[in-house]
Amino acid sequence: MKNTKFQNNVAMAIIKLIAAMVVLILVFLLGKILISGVPHISWKFLVTPSKAFTAGGGISVQIFNSFYLLILTLLISFPISLGAGIYLAKYAAKNKITSLIRMVIEILSSLPSVVVGLFVFLVCVVQMQIGFSILAGAIALTFFNLPLLTRNIEESIKAVPNLQLEGGLALGLSKWKTITKIILPEALPGIITGVILSAGRVFGEAAALIYTAGQSAPAVDFTNWNIFDETSPLNLMRPAETLAVHIWKINSEGIMPDANAISAGTSAVLIIAILIFNLSARYLGNYLYRKLTSAR
Amino acid sequence: MEYNLKDKYILQLNEKEKALETRDLNIFYGEKQALFDGNLQFERYKITSLIGASGSGKSTFLRSLNRMNEGVADVKGSILYRGIDINSPKINVYEMRKYIGMVFQRPNPFSKSIYENITFALKENGIKDKEKLAEIVETSLKQAALWDEVKDDLNKSALALSGGQQQRLCIARAIAMKPDILLLDEPASALDPISTAKIEETLLELKEKYTLIIVTHNMQQASRISDYTVFFHLGNVIEYNKTKNIFTNPKIKLTEDYISGNFG
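ok -> structure tokens follow
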């Protein structure tokens, strides 16, 4: 009896220690990045374009590029993932072809992002002559995002009890109607959470973008909203360095005198943005769940 | 003790009384056969109970009557409704299910308001008139004996109701479609005795307008509410007779042993 209790205490102590270690590492990393980076963040830093050789450059274009790329990636990958997720969760028969599809998605999700980047570089940038561009970057990020988002949507839909589908069918509703009007609204909180979390991942991705969206951020004219104009921020064919790529670039070949400060400040901005994504995913997911399930 | 599954007693009805009839229904889950030669006739405006041990095929049988088993089980044979074989591939199953509704074992209201739970399918079927919808909501909730409990908060989420109320809402939702036949798959098995009594009361009132076929594990329930009872065993229909006869004077030894509880 005594021995059992002792064993239990030892096991508990070890588990608590491991958990504390994980938290400590995270706190240390976040603290280090924020403490060294936040002092460099100023309004000017956020709204000035970067400079290649002189001090005092900002990250305005990189911030815009990161968000624009994120939106484009979600615009491409969300509809595809939604369709694939619905198919896998509710329509796919349990056979070899379906398990093959699942396996392919799993393999795709474990591809190193630098390989995805090089693939899109060879196929889109070089072969199809798109050049370093936001479009190529969005395609690479779509490859990178698609499997995880599909998996997330499939799981969210599967988490809705099958009884709901049967309930709809028994009322003479078609399967498609039941899925779109009853199952999807109920799966929505999970889907939204997944989309925002994947947005955080996409936002921080660098390796897939180095050879696709490129490593330069040509100045853009934020008053020009003609999507076909080369200086317009919306132009899909311009090279677009993102925050994460900017950090990598500065650290590997930055020659401006304040490179360290810019790198630290950019890292802090990136981390803060991703933290906001994660927290809002939690909040929005909970909010939607409450709204959909409890009394209104 | 050995029983001969070929020993059967199956009641035959007049043509006029039939609401639904199955002919040579054989149901397979892959290689495994779950039902053998189901030949049953169900009388209009009556309650028919399907009883039998777990795995006897009664739920499988019920779920094939409005083809809810589609894609899971392979159903061979014919199901005649108004002279039409609704098991034919040519039938529009979604249209057919408007005539043959179903209530499930676990209450499954949609995560919408009480009101929307009932109006949702009606709206999809093109009933847009607000007054008409409100009227249907009221009558079907009254028929399901839920109106008095929820009339003041129809906009409340259906998930906030108790299990018994949720199940009556599901019944209301099903009868709002004005089906001919209502299939109930152990509708009270997940509920407490008081809710069960309320559901039974509701069913007895519903049979004035609908033909009810109910699967139940509870033999007292079958004897309390049903006019006819079917006894299933290992995928075979063993005995089908008036409930009174099944419980007081079973024709087959197997039925008698099952009902008196000295089985196997």
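Residues 2-37 of chain A form the longest helix (36 residues).
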